[in-house]
Amino acid sequence: MKDLIENLRDISDRIGAAKKISDYDEILHLDHHRKLILDEIFSRGLKQLSEENITTIKSIAEENEKMILEISIAGTKKAESAHKKMKALSGYNK
Length: 94
Fold this sequence. Notes:
The protein is mainly α. It is elongated and about 65 Å long. Helix 1 packs antiparallel against helix 2 (24-43). The mean pLDDT is 86. It has one domain (2-93). 87% of the residues lie in helices and 0% in strands. The chain is built from three helices and no strands.
């Protein structure tokens, strides 16, 4: 179980690094692996988790939730910006 928790921490750190450089493809790739690790952890049973492990998983989940919100907001802003540019180009071409 300890190895899985360490892998989860590592993946989360790598997701954070990818977020800093806005590498959304890498974030999605790593998030898929994070989900697989979580599935493996929970398939072994909650009784095998220590209090520290549970705290780690909760902390990572909270960080992930914040990151998803930030990415969603950034995506919305990019879409709005692209829409404005397309509108401006459309007006220019008339």
